[in-house]
Amino acid sequence: ADGSQLWLRYDKVTAAEAGRRQIRSTSSGPVALMAKAELDDYWRGPAVELVIDKKKREYGEGYQIKWTGSGLQILAQQDRGLLYGAYHLLRLQGEGKDLRGVDLTEIPAYDIRILNHWDNLDGTIERGYAGRSLWKWLELPTQISPRYAAYARANASIGINAVVLNNVNASPDILRPDYLLKVKALADIFRPYGIQVYLSINFSSPKIIGGVKDSDPLNPDVSTWWKNKVKEIYRTIPDFGGFLVKANSEGQPGPQDYGRTHADGANMLADALKPYDGLVMWRAFVYNPTTEDRAKQAYQEFVPLDGKFSENVIIQIKNGPIDFQPREPFNPLFGALRKSSEMVEFQITQEYLGFSNHLVYLAPLFKETLDSDTYSDGKGSTIAKLTDGTLRPAKKTAISAVANIGEDTNWTGHHFAQANWYAFGRLAWDHQLSSEQIAEEWISLTFSREEQLVHAVKEIMMTSREAVVNYMMPLGLHHIFAFDHHYGPEPWGDRKGGRADWMPWYYHNADTVGMGFDRTASGSDAVSQYFPPLDEIYGDITSCPDSLLLWFHHVSWTHRMKSGRTMWEELCYRYDAGVQQVRELQKAWDRLEHQVDSQRFAAVQSKLKIQAKDAVWWKDACLLYFKTFARQPIPYDIERPVHELEDLKKIKLNLIHHN
Ligand code: BDP
């Protein structure tokens, strides 16, 4: 198998099978007809009736699946509910579940479950590791790739109902009339799958493509330009979702260019979108090359603006305060904005997690954030509850993630990276699902439901995230990657004249005393951005969890850890553990040789070899480098380095980072 079918490896029913059962729908909308068509094609069970019940308002896009005695009924308030119910049935069939007597109700946790594509109009993808963009801008709208529908179907099957097509570092060209027709072509294909299209916009569009004098949000010509542009968009795409905006961040233009605030900028766009029920997802990923701790900046910029954003603006916040690291504490902005809607941005594409070369199952990372208790509204104020409407009423709730999808045959580069796309969709639908449950589903559908295989593959997946943290950045270390492309270690990295906050030393602060970032009151005081008691827990070296120790503290090499080891020893053992864990992944996978088709077996096997080599590279680079500060031996019972530090320093990967 080449992986192109993802988790949708269903065989079409034969004519004889189809003759034995009936699928009926009370709704004839395009989305309901899609639900019916999917069941017509793939459902081998008893009769199914798709029923719309407008009174079931509490369902939203949810549904009920009920055994009627002789067949099944899917009840929903909207056509999308029927579609999700149909995919649920197919999933249960794929998992081999008995459906007699079934009665289940599913209601999605978030209204908007959205993928962010960082795809450029030239076909490259920023931080994309699965080939070029799926969107063929040169061919659209005339030529329609069959992969557009296949993509939409895969999303619908896991409940994703919205996509941002283009990079947050947005080209203004996306708003040109010719591009809008291309966008419309995609929107038309996605619509029957219940998927709405959003676009990333460049804040300077009025000036660059509109011929307006500037792009100042308080300039009436600018707001008029946006109003007209939005009108044009809705004339072309009546169910258009809205805009995603990266402003005044990493060189992107924004309202601050004119002395205005993020709120001024967001609200001007929100006004234009409001008549059509459109939304602005305004990103909080902002930081400047100042002396202020980068981890504090989003909070500092946005908290003073709380209450100033229009109702149809949602602040889109990365899970951690820095940038999609293997492990970060949650972003302290969650819960700190009391009068503004907040949504999480995850990254499915593995920018900082070994690209599509490393097997890393991300559900545990996503869950770690969603289940984090911020204490904003007292105990139990988890990020899930703050963003899903439980604790803070919101006009629309949303959750997003940066996609890992490209034109590779298997969509995501690594076969196991498909699981991260899957897991995001499933958690966006129901954040209470466990990582294990999601893994079991995915494995059963993607490989086989043979119990021993499901168990073995699940073990691999469940270890993988801790493994990557261990061999890359244990104990709260972060951002010690090679410059710019972020593949591989470069703790010694330094670019003369480059921004401090892009340099590894900025984050690890290794010296002869110890290492780590002092974010306590005696340091940058980032801890004070967390609600009590977290500020104290994180701020005290004795109560700060090991997993975040070097994130919050500059710790001496000889500091006694909870394990009784010194910090230096603990660091060494963690790196070594990471390498050993990858070795175990290799062994566990090799044992499955005769249970997985040879094509996917070999592909994963060879990627695991790269991962194992990279893990050793990480361990040697970090330990040999930090040893020059710690001035102590690497404990003699762990694997010895196989590299020379000076050789590792010479590695210069020629990777292009597109933006
Ligand atoms: C970082 C990426 C950069 C993105 C930026 C963003 O390195 O390519 O443009 O985030 O999210 O993770 O805007």
TrEMBL record:
Residues 412-637 form the Glycosyl hydrolase family 67 C-terminal domain. Keywords: Carbohydrate metabolism, Glycosidase, Hydrolase, Polysaccharide degradation, Signal, Xylan degradation. Belongs to the glycosyl hydrolase 67 family. This is Alpha-glucuronidase. Gene3D superfamilies: Alpha-glucuronidase, C-terminal domain, Chitobiase/beta-hexosaminidase domain 2-like, Glycosidases. PANTHER family: ALPHA-GLUCURONIDASE A (PTHR39207). Residues 96-411 form the Glycosyl hydrolase family 67 catalytic domain. It comes from Sphingobacterium pedocola. InterPro entries: A-glucoronidase_C_sf, GH, Glyco_hydro_67_aGlcAse, Glyco_hydro_67_C, Glyco_hydro_67_cat, Hex-like_dom2.
